[in-house]
Amino acid sequence: MRTNERPLSESAKLRNLLRLSLPKAVVSRLDSIDGWDEMQGYPDGTYGNGDTVGLSWGDVGHGINMAINQVAQYHALQRAWGGGGNGTAQQRQPMRRLPGPPQIPANQAQAFQNGGPSKLLGYMGLGTFEFNPTSGTSTILTQEPSTAFRIRRLIVDQAKSSGATGVLVTVGAINVSGMPQSPAPNARASITGFEGGATYSLLDLQIAAPGVPVELPVFVSAAPASGETVTVSAMVYGEWLR
User: Fold this and answer.
1) Residue 179 counted as domain residue
2) Shared domain check, 137 and 235
3) Is residue 54 part of a domain?
4) Are residue 50 and residue 137 in the same domain, yes or no?
5) Residues 6-46: tens digit of each pLDDT
6) How many domains does the chain have?
7) How far lies 7's CA from each of 3, 12, 18, 21, in Å?
């Protein structure tokens, strides 16, 4: 029996323990793995199938934790699931089920959409007008909201007969509560910017007061020829304030 052996240091003991606990890592070259692509992994989108390129630090951490901290893990699991261990009585209580989302009564569900009970997203039609050879070249589409309404988008549609395709339709400044909502109220604008598929068409206009007309002037470049028509329809989307 040898009596002159020096006792192992703590770091040496830890190294010996890790040799017994850590999984063996298979180190391979990238070009030696069948099907491997260094940018995409394997053709099926994975990075595994048992081959390990280099050393997995996740495996290292798991091995260290399992080798050193098994007793602590046992007590933590016991405390979490209401078992024994050294936890307090409060820690050993069974886990409680998390509460579900709050339930809104069916008769109040609509009131809570879009930010609060006093505002809904809605729409309002402004009307339809048909230009013909005797109707003139301008009209005003108008509608009175019954409650306060904040316009956020204007939609204008047109329908032309085959002989009126060359007639240009434009609109003037929309008037809300008696005030034109354009910095150039006398200028006319093409309805292309107010088509259903138009982008950058969000508006932020003055709130339309109840009982005060919202007015949209509409113009055509020329009266349609005999037997021809140009029909224009408009509507607004916005916030219905209740």
Assistant:
1) yes
2) yes
3) yes
4) no
5) 776 766 666 666 565 555 555 445 454 555 454 444 455 44
6) 2
7) 11, 10, 18, 22
Residues whose CB falls within 8 Å of the CB of residue 105, separated by 6 or more in sequence, listed in order: none
Contact 177, 209 (CB under 8 A): yes
pLDDT in tens, 79-137: 655 555 455 555 555 556 655 555 555 555 555 454 554 788 899 999 999 999 999 99
For residue 44, give its domain range.
Answer: 10-68
Same domain, 114 and 232: yes
Same domain, 143 and 27: no
**Which two tokens mark 224?**
């349609």
Q: Kindly report each contact of residues 26-30 with a partner whose C-beta sits within 8 Å and lies 24 or more positions away, as own/partner.
A: 26/50, 26/51, 26/52, 27/52, 27/53, 27/54, 27/55, 28/52, 28/53
Does residue 25 belong to any structural domain of this protein? yes
Residue 75 CB: number of other CB atoms within 10 A? 15
Write the CATH number for 130. Answer: 2.60.120
Token pair for 132: 């013909």
Output the DSSP codes for the chain: ----PPPPPHHHHHHHHHHHHSPPP-B--GGGSTT-BTTTBSTTS-S-TT-BSS--HHHHHHHHHHHH-HHHHHHHHHHHTT--SS--TTTTSPPPPPP-PPPPPGGGTGGGGGGSTTEEEEEEEEEEEEE-TTS-SEEEEEE--SS-EEEEEEEEEEEE-GGGTT--EEE-PPEETTEE-SSSTT--EEGGGGSTT-SS----PPEEPTTSPEEEEEEESSPPPTT--EEEEEEEEEEEE-
Residue 154 one-letter amino acid = L
